[in-house]
Design a protein that fits this description.
The complex is a heterodimer of chains A (about 160) and B (about 575). Chain A is an alpha/beta fold and about 160 residues long. Chain A contains six helices and seven strands. Chain A starts with 7 loop residues before the first strand and ends with a strand. Chain B has 15 helices and 15 strands. Chain B starts with 13 loop residues before the first strand and ends with a strand. Classes of the chains: A alpha/beta (about 160), B alpha+beta (about 575).
Chain lengths: ~160, ~575
């Protein structure tokens, strides 16, 4: 236990203007409101920025990404994607999701500083309608999504304490 | 300098669709009719509905910027700025000099970042065959690099060999990722660069990745909260901390490094690559240009902004560089005849704009885009680097004159060759170089001014009823946000963005948008891989202002938690 603690980034991404697209950002907002974190943990609302997230990504050793994930299951299903799943989805190009986070991770790798990353994602119900509110069934699932993210955080050496 | 090659052309006749256009933000679909190997007609179709106007209605005008800057993952700041400026105008506040300079510096950083990323990471793959770089002789490439970019040592044969090895590893692991579906895979006759130039450009592609991180970090120092900038407020700025010595020194150091890269690498690369693609100086031109101006010395009103901008404002009609008109803001309107909106909304000024969607179907040539069609005095206008370049050059702007003439001389082409895809890409580099040459002065001006007096925000009061426009010449072009305030709340809000000017659909009169016009006459070498379409479309740096971001795994092997 003499090793320096891992620098952990909890990154919420997505576009809050498109209903459930913003679930990752809303989840990070909730974490910031509810918990205090140990010094080795950084929380970031990454919005829908792509390459401009490279700096915070490269500064971290481990990244927990919260995002909407289209896995084909029921809305509200929570997924956990790690290295290989993410790598395989790297080839995914044939849709509107272009300059996205996955590309940004490849760019990090291209210059030799890709952090280990896990995605805790949720199947959205609606990512088309313009609204800054999550669908009710998705909003209800944010708490379990956060529980999984916090377990992930503990496993890699981050501490979250409920705010007084 | 290499001689211009004849542009390869097939004998293909028929329709082609590129959907989606990759390496842009958002979802753009381009449909063309090809006749005997040349594009005869074109349609530009935005596939994403952007109904921000609907979300903003009824909110506090000051909050508009927090929503508009979320519309897009690239142009966050410019939307934040335009939204702030339109409220500045509505409440008639004159922002302090420090705030004006701080906003300008962050805009300059945005240009440096965006244009670097555009050239190397979004546009270069249209011209540079990365896999061809594997065939290069590193010795020969190192020698060539010395003549292309003499100010940049470090491209030794050994370093270039290392780049090849890294690339090879990437290709062999099947992780082409960002290069997946690139049209050059398997060789393509529309790519002309020798392997050595491909290798040098690829090495710089990687170096530029590092550099854009520095540019983004610089921007975040002044922009406050990283990565979404939140330092603009109605009446000025709020980031007092950025006026202190240490952050400013950091900003200056990072910026200096980026500017040096622009001078020593970006511009030489641009000239080297352009030298092989001079045929593209005759492809992809448009007719009319408009700029609102940026980097003003007086922001007391939109008119003063346009009058006092370092990148000048103006209008050029029919390519007539001898006549630069002033921009008349009242002459801007938007048509919806060919868009997916309810009919009857043509010709509306943005203050009176209506956003009332009505989707028909995908393959409908009569209604084919979520974008409206902005027009100025009945004309489609190109906005962005090329428009700024022509307007500044024609006005005799000394910095522009010098560098434009140098570029024309080096490429041995006349100024008319700039009405093209090549010209658009060159103009982007030219203005980046001009900004790079001014940064030192601009930062010092700001440091001196803020050391004397740290006022950053002026007082104002929200009127019950008002209207205002926020103008900006963003990296992608002329941007305007239009607000009507009623009962101190947003009554109407319309955004007319650069990509709508450049990549919108036909106007009510059936006239083509700039990109639709630019595509006409383009030769297509291989209808299965029409890289020529990408070249012209990417040269406009499209940003369809609402990147959707979800991750879609390809496998079904995703580990699932099911929590009740």
């Amino acid at each position: 236990m003499t090793e320096a603690p891992k620098k952990i980034l909890i990154l919420g991404v997505g576009n809050i203007l498109y209903t459930d697209e913003g679930v990752g950002v809303r989840a990070v907002e909730r974490l910031l409101e509810t918990y205090d974190f140990s010094d080795n943990v950084t929380l970031l609302d990454g919005g829908n920025l792509g390459m401009r997230l490279m700096q915070p990504l490269m500064e971290s050793d481990y990244c927990i990404i919260l995002d909407a994930v289209l896995g084909g299951d029921q809305p509200g299903t929570i997924y956990r994607l790690t290295g290989d799943d993410l790598r395989k989805s790297l080839a995914f190009k044939d849709s509107m999701h272009q300059s996205d986070l996955v590309d940004t991770l490849i760019y990090c790798e291209l210059i030799g500083k890709r952090p280990e990353a896990v995605v805790i994602g949720m199947e959205p119900r609606d990512i088309q309608s313009m609204s800054i509110e999550l669908s009710p069934e998705i909003a209800d699932r944010v708490t379990p999504m956060l529980e999984i993210a916090l377990k992930e955080l503990r496993d890699v050496g981050g501490v979250a304490t409920l705010k007084a | 300098m290499a001689e211009s090659k004849p542009t390869p052309q097939s004998t293909f006749t028929g329709p082609l669709v590129v959907d989606p256009i990759t390496r842009i933000e958002g979802h753009l679909r381009i449909m063309v009719e090809v006749e005997n190997g040349k594009i005869k007609d074109a349609w530009s179709s935005s596939q994403l509905f952007r109904g921000l106007e609907i979300i903003l209605k009824g909110r506090d005008p000051r909050d508009a910027q927090h929503f508009t800057q979320r519309a897009c993952g690239v142009c966050t700041y410019v939307h934040g700025l335009a939204s702030t400026r339109c409220v500045d105008d509505a409440v008639k506040v004159n922002i302090p000099g420090n705030a004006r300079m701080m906003r300008n510096l962050v805009m300059a950083s945005q240009y440096l970042h965006d244009h670097l990323v555009h050239f190397y990471h979004l546009h270069a793959l249209d011209w540079v065959d990365v896999t061809n770089a594997l065939k290069a002789d590193p010795q020969k490439a190192a020698k060539l690099a010395e003549s292309i970019a003499p100010a940049r040592p470090g491209n030794s044969a050994q370093a270039l060999k290392a780049v090849q090895d890294r690339l090879k590893g990437f290709v062999e692991s099947g992780q082409l990722g960002i290069f997946t579906n690139a049209y050059f895979l398997g060789g393509h006759k529309a790519y002309y660069l020798p392997p050595e130039v491909d290798l040098i450009a690829t090495a710089h592609y990687l170096e530029a990745l590092h550099m854009q991180v520095k540019a983004a970090s610089a921007m975040a120092i002044l922009g406050g909260k990283n990565p979404h900038t939140q330092f603009t407020v109605v009446g000025g700025c709020s980031n007092y901390q950025a006026m202190e010595k240490e952050p400013l020194a950091n900003y200056m150091a990072l910026t200096k490094e980026v500017c040096q890269f622009v001078n020593d690498v970006y511009i030489p690369d641009l000239l080297a690559v352009a030298g092989f693609y001079k045929d593209w100086g005759g492809i992809g031109g448009t007719t009319n240009y408009m700029a609102f101006g940026e980097f003003a010395t007086d922001e007391s009103s939109p008119e003063k902004h346009m009058e006092t901008s370092f990148f000048p404002s103006g209008v050029i009609m029919n390519r007539d560089l001898a006549k630069i008109d002033k921009v008349e803001l009242g002459a801007i309107y938007e048509d919806v005849k060919y868009s997916w909106y309810k009919s009857g909304g043509d010709g509306l000024h943005p203050y009176d704009g209506v956003t009332d969607p009505k989707y028909t179907k995908l393959d409908d040539k009569d209604h084919y885009s979520w974008m409206k069609a902005p027009r100025y005095k009945g004309k489609a206008m190109e906005v962005g680097p090329l428009a700024r370049c022509f307007i500044a050059y024609a006005k005799g702007h000394p910095e522009y004159k010098k560098i434009v003439d140098t570029v024309l001389q080096k490429l041995e082409v006349p100024v008319t060759a700039l009405h093209s895809t090549l010209g658009r890409t060159a103009a982007r580099g030219i203005e980046t170089a001009i900004i790079a040459s001014k940064m030192d002065t601009w930062i010092k001006e700001f440091a001196d001014s803020s050391a004397k007096d740290n006022t950053l925000c002026a007082k104002w009061e929200m009127p019950d009823e008002a209207k205002g426009v926020g103008l900006a010449d963003a990296p992608r072009g002329a941007l305007s946000h239009w607000i009507r305030i009623k009962g101190k709340k947003i009554d109407n809000f319309q955004l007319v963005v650069p990509s709508t000017w450049n990549l919108g659909p036909r106007g009510a009169a059936g006239d083509k948008s700039p990109v639709e016009e630019a595509l006409i006459g383009t030769p297509i070498a291989d209808p299965k891989r029409p890289v020529e379409i990408l070249r012209t479309v990417h040269a406009f740096d499209p940003c369809i202002a609402c990147g959707v971001h979800v991750i879609e795994p390809e496998t079904n092997e995703v580990l699932k938690f099911r929590v009740v």
